[in-house]
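User: Let's play a game. I give you a shape written as tokens, and you guess the letters that built it. Ready? Here's round one.
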């Protein structure tokens, strides 16, 4: 199961957002630093309206969404790379996640203490990124010392590592995260073994006030703090910045789906920020969804972008990949249009695909396998 880590400075709304995303109160949310000491972990279902539609068409008895894991990580402070605050615990936990959700405070409220005494989104981002970069530099320096002797003796793998480290260190020393550097295929493969914190994909969650939410969603560049984060994310990491209000999301988590929909409608908002964030993180991790449907169940299955039909079949059962014959595929849009497999087949939109077929997000599939 892939993990996304929710990170940020103390008192920016991390734990509140975690509670909302996971629809729990596992993470204590309080107005003081280091409220979250041990990382909280929650399984999060990925919102997918297609499941409800297919389930109704098929008369399914069960509906099973796909899921990812979110981790609420202790608040980071300046000097974490040298052990300040809960730095060592923070860095060890973030090393284990596959993607990072940086929660950035984009609201002012005198009743909620900011660790540094003022609200400055770009300063907060730079502190987090600087600590990740400094931790990476320390790890690379240590690795360089251990690999240099082997490289001098002619070890090809050690030579390649040393060359990559010597390429990385000046880039990091200039304050640039590893993810912003260009690598060839061999370097990118080798980089994975370094487990660098600043090489992880990130998404920035702009936590705005309840009063600002509707306007910030409709016109994000008109909100000064949100505009700053969006510009920074795009220019430095090619990353996405989403807008939400952690406080509203926590309130929504207490409501029924019907009540939540009415609440959002009254605010003039189409979808909850937590829902949009979960979907964005799912795609950030390189994940895609195909669907199966029938009387017994309608289900979402997680694959990686680019996976071919046998690998997708193997997600259901490993034997399906080995015994794969072909896949009967209807895209979701066609399934909804024609409503039954028989009608889709008559219309010519049901396709028989072989081992080289690259499964698309939203494909509705029936696999045929041999004994």
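Assistant: Ready! My guess for every position:
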């Amino acid at each position: 199961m892939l993990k996304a880590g929710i990170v940020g400075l103390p008192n920016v709304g991390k734990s509140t957002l975690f509670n909302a995303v996971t629809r729990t109160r596992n993470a204590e949310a309080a107005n003081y630093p280091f409220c979250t000491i041990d990382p909280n972990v929650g399984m999060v279902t990925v919102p997918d309206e297609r499941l409800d539609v297919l389930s109704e068409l098929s008369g399914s008895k069960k509906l099973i969404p796909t899921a990812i894991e979110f981790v609420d990580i202790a608040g980071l402070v300046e000097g974490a790379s040298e052990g300040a605050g809960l730095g060592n615990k923070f860095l060890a936990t973030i090393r284990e996640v596959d993607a990072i959700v940086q929660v950035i405070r984009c609201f002012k409220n005198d009743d909620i203490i900011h660790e540094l005494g003022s609200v400055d989104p770009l300063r907060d981002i730079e502190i987090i990124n600087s600590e990740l970069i400094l931790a990476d530099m320390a790890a690379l320096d240590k690795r360089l010392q251990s690999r240099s002797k082997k490289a001098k003796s002619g070890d090809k793998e050690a030579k390649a590592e040393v060359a990559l480290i010597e390429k990385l260190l000046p880039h990091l020393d200039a304050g640039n995260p590893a993810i912003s550097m260009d690598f060839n295929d061999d370097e990118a493969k080798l980089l994975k073994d370094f487990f660098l914190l600043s090489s992880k994909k990130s998404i920035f969650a702009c936590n705005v006030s309840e009063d600002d939410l509707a306007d910030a969603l409709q016109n994000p560049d008109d909100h000064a703090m949100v505009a700053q984060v969006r510009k920074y994310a795009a220019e430095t990491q090619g990353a996405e910045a989403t807008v939400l209000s952690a406080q509203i999301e926590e309130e929504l988590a207490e409501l029924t789906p019907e009540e939540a929909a009415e609440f959002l409608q009254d605010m003039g908002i189409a979808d909850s920020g937590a829902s949009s964030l979960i979907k964005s993180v799912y795609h950030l991790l390189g994940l895609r969804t195909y669907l199966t449907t029938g009387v017994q169940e309608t289900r979402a299955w997680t694959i990686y972008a680019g996976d071919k039909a046998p690998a997708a079949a193997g997600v259901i059962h490993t034997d399906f990949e080995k015994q794969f014959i072909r896949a009967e595929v209807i895209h979701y849009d066609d399934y909804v249009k024609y409503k039954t497999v028989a009608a889709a087949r008559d219309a010519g939109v049901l396709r028989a695909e072989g081992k080289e077929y690259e499964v698309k997000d939203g494909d509705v599939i029936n696999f045929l396998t041999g004994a």
